[in-house]
Design brief:
- The structure is a single chain.
- The chain has 378 residues and is an alpha/beta fold.
- The protein has 3 domains: 10-51 and 101-138 and 242-281, 3-Layer(bba) Sandwich (FAD/NAD(P)-binding domain); 147-238, Alpha-Beta Plaits (2-Layer Sandwich), CATH 3.30.70; 294-377, no CATH class.
- The protein has 10 helices and 15 strands.
- The strands form 3 sheets. Strands 6-5-11-12-13-10-14 form a 7-stranded mixed beta sheet.
- A hairpin with a 2-residue loop joins β12 and β13 (192-201).
- It is globular and about 65 Å long.
- The termini are far apart.
- The protein binds flavin-adenine dinucleotide.
């Protein structure tokens, strides 16, 4: 840009169009000023109503400073709980944050608008060959893929019930008859919390199953008889690598492989994917690569096989991992920032026979270990 704000060569500006206006598309649009060689347009679907709000959880790290500032709650301490024990972890550098989708999306829209990003209705197909197109619509979920599915209630209680300084990331003291199932509880104050019933299985449960699990948990483990529901969220997150929404359009966000298969976390990975694309754009090409290392995808595929075939082992496996790591190491591992010594720590904490067997099965299903969409994830 020159001092009067014009570019020295208008032809050098390349138009970019993104299908969809969710997390990835708007997170990118908010960074438009970091892409001076491109003019960005977000193509919005006709969604037929206001977007449903929910909470994003993520561990803080320098590349997420803006999100951390917008977060409305954070915890240095969290716990994992099974029938017979609890592991409490404390983080020094990487607290866990809760951010409302609506706050992030509104902030992104403001930044995008002030940077001159265009917004337009979504065409049925890319309609301009001179534009570089990206697609943030959801990827194709094959039958039989492991899913993370959940219903969460934001609740208010009359009496002081929750311990606001400790988030519960997994509490397995709930019905395990359908597969791996846990309660995720983010306490916002002694009387307010998000309480979520979450399963990792290939099939969604009826709504009443999650609601009963939350109700039973509040009654049995927290002694709450009555509570007011202030908000409800639900989701189904596919766990694995998938084919793109449209094979002819490059993906971004969940459609660009950003969902971490072992956890369903995607928010932090989407921001990492965008950071890397912006860094790469200064070298001449805009490209949204998967933000995961291949070894992590491989470890995730092995873990998902164990959880699918031996879900009863899940509480022990996750508590073993938590016991072996510090809070910051746990956060780094789940945020995809593990080095080899940290990966080895996790591997050493796991029961070997079960994982070797699952790894052998994975090798047979996916001999090339490509970790692309396909049998490795079913
Ligand atoms: C309720 C819920 C809670 C979650 N919690 C967390 C969390 O705590 N931490 C975390 O890291 N991740 C979480 N995730 C996962 C992940 O962060 C989100 O799914 C994230 O929104 C993915 O971003 P995205 O841009 O890829 O997709 P989206 O934000 O879903 O955007 C997709 C876009 O495509 C459009 N679209 C969808 N279908 C079509 C169609 N058929 N035609 C046209 N347009 C279409 C949508 O309208 C939207 O504009 C959660 C997901 C859900 C659903």
């Amino acid at each position: 840009m020159s001092s009067d704000g014009s570019t020295s060569s208008e032809e050098a500006i390349r138009p970019v169009g993104v299908f969809g206006d969710g997390c990835a598309a708007l997170s990118l649009a908010a960074r438009a000023r970091d892409l001076p060689g491109y003019s960005l347009t977000i193509y919005q679907p006709d969604s037929g109503g206001p977007e449903k709000d929910h909470i994003w959880g993520f561990w803080g790290t320098p590349h997420l400073d803006r999100a951390a500032r917008l977060a409305f709650a954070r915890w240095q301490k969290w716990q994992l709980v099974s029938q017979d024990r609890a592991v409490v972890m404390t983080a020094e550098a990487r607290p866990y944050h809760a951010l409302r989708r609506s706050d992030w999306i509104a902030d992104c829209r403001r930044a995008a608008t002030s940077a001159g990003v265009g917004f337009a209705p979504m065409p049925p197909r890319p309609n301009d060959p001179a534009t570089i197109w990206f697609d943030s619509r959801p990827p194709v979920v094959p039958d039989g893929m492991m899913l993370q599915h959940f219903v969460g209630l934001e609740v208010q209680t009359d009496s002081e019930t929750f311990t606001p300084d400790t988030a519960t990331l997994m509490d397995f003291r709930v019905d395990q008859s359908r597969g791996m199932h846990f309660i995720y509880l983010l306490p916002f104050s002694p009387t307010e919390a998000l309480v979520e019933s979450t399963l990792f299985t290939p099939r969604r449960a009826p709504d009443q199953f999650y609601l009963d699990a939350i109700d039973g948990y509040l009654k049995t483990h927290l002694g709450v008889d009555t509570y007011k529901v202030t908000h409800q969220e639900r989701g189904v997150i596919p766990l694995g690598m998938m084919d793109r929404h449209d094979p002819e359009i490059a993906g971004i966000g969940g459609n660009g492989g950003a969902i971490r298969p072992s956890s369903g976390y995607a928010f932090a990975f989407i921001q990492k994917q965008i950071d890397r694309a912006i860094a790469g754009a200064s070298h001449g090409s805009l490209h949204f690569a998967k933000p995961h290392q291949r070894v992590d995808l491989w470890m995730d595929a092995v873990l998902l096989r164990v959880l699918r075939h031996q879900p009863e082992t899940a509480p022990d496996l996750f508590l073993r991992m938590a016991s072996a790591l510090t809070g910051d190491q746990f956060a780094r591992f789940l945020s995809g920032e593990a080095d080899w010594s940290l990966r080895l720590k996790v591997i050493m904490a796991m029961p070997k026979r079960m994982f070797v067997k699952a790894a052998m099965r994975l090798l047979l299903a996916s001999p090339g270990l490509t970790m692309k969409a396909g049998r490795a994830w079913r």
